[in-house]
Amino acid sequence: MEIKKYQKWTALVLVLCMLFSMTGCADEEKEAKQSFSKEDTWVVYWYLCGSDLESNYGAATADLNEMMQVKLPENVKVVIQTGGASKWQNDQVKTDRIQRYEYSGDTLTLKDETEQASMGDPETQPIMMRIRSNFAETVEAAIDGKLDTAEIDWDPRSALGVVLAAKGYPTSPEKGAVITLPENTADSRIFHAGTKTDEQGRVVVSGGRVLCAVGLGSPLAQAQMMAYKLADGVKFDGMQMRRDIGWRAINR
């Protein structure tokens, strides 16, 4: 009897919860209808991050194709920003660019594009080297929506970066090699990419592109010399690097 009585009370509580939930949903729906009208314009922002699922299997391309089969209302637009894939399984999205498209229900239109700007990329690290002001304050301003008030103090000199890669890179990079690092200077600095510390506290290789040695100088040949001087001070088993970085720009 006690069990049945308990079950009845439980059922009653569940029914009451459902009724209150339905009432709440009805109120929310009523408020939504009062807040928006058919004349409102809607813009949906979609970051289409490809990742390895796109590079290997075309997953992001499949999502994009599926979306383009949807007929949108006239007052709805979708803004699509691409990024994050080493290879795209379509002929439209570029790997080396950040692109922003607009989809309005019938066509996909490229609105703007720029070079990749990941802070972990070797193309970006020389630019970071030229920042003399407090970059953390610039990032905080961006987070707070006040980037238009931020100012960056740039070093006018050229910067050049040399990537130090692991043994077996790019096909099968070997990990675990212990790294010996030189001291940074006012005009040269090591940027870490594929590194980590092991159980003994040593810096070891953990990826293909391991480090980037960046030098500052004017003219560019001076920056090149500083970068290679620093790079030559790095030691780990199987280390490899190109010796021709910057030659086209220097020979212009």
What does it look like?
The model is unreliable at 1-26 (pLDDT under 50). The protein is globular. It has 252 residues and is an alpha+beta fold. The protein has helices spanning 2-35, 51-57, 59-67, 125-129, 135-143, 220-231, 247-250, and strands spanning 42-49, 76-83, 97-103, 108-115, 158-165, 188-192, 195-197, 203-205, 209-217.
Short description:
The chain has 252 residues and is an alpha+beta fold. It has helices spanning 2-35, 51-57, 59-67, 125-129, 135-143, 220-231, 247-250, and strands at 42-49, 76-83, 97-103, 108-115, 158-165, 188-192, 195-197, 203-205, 209-217.
Tags for this model:
alpha+beta, globular, 9 strands, three-stranded antiparallel beta sheet, 252 residues, four-stranded mixed beta sheet, disordered N terminus
